[in-house]
Design a protein that fits this description.
Residues 67-80 have a biased composition (Basic and acidic residues). Residues 14-26, 36-55 have a biased composition (Low complexity). Residues 1-113 are annotated as: Disordered. With 113 residues, the chain is mainly α. It has a domain at 68-98. Helix content is 30%, strand content 0%. It has 3 helices and no strands. The protein is flat and about 80 Å long. The N and C termini lie far apart (76 Å).
């Protein structure tokens, strides 16, 4: 809430003047009309340029799968955290189960044909 009398007390008691924007005439846009001028030829269609040969897109990295051993270790960590009441160990166990703990797991190997 504003206190009364503060502007006059601080010496900023000049009247507040807000600049006004001068009003000018509005101009109307010219409307588009039907083409009654010179006749035009038939439209030409453009074709896409062929892609250069030898350029290929990068393929996505193979998906990482969490091994059964890592999942078992994660469950053990999670239970250990629950028993001791340590939320950090529980979170570490969950990450281990999901495979997002940063440890290197084997990626699925795809053979090239």
């Amino acid at each position: 809430m504003a206190r009364e009398g503060t502007r006059s007390a601080t010496g900023n008691s000049r009247p507040r003047v807000f600049p006004t924007v001068p009003v000018t005439e509005t101009t109307t846009k010219k409307r588009a009309t039907a083409n009654t001028g010179a006749k035009r030829g038939p439209k030409t269609t453009t074709t896409k340029a062929a892609k250069p040969t030898g350029v290929t897109k990068k393929k996505a990295a193979p998906a990482k799968k969490t091994s059964v051993a890592d999942k078992a270790k994660g469950v053990v960590k999670k239970v250990e955290g629950t028993v001791t009441g340590n939320p950090e160990k529980k979170a570490a166990g969950t990450k281990k189960i999901k495979g997002t703990d940063g440890s290197k797991t084997k990626a699925t190997v795809t053979k090239k044909k």
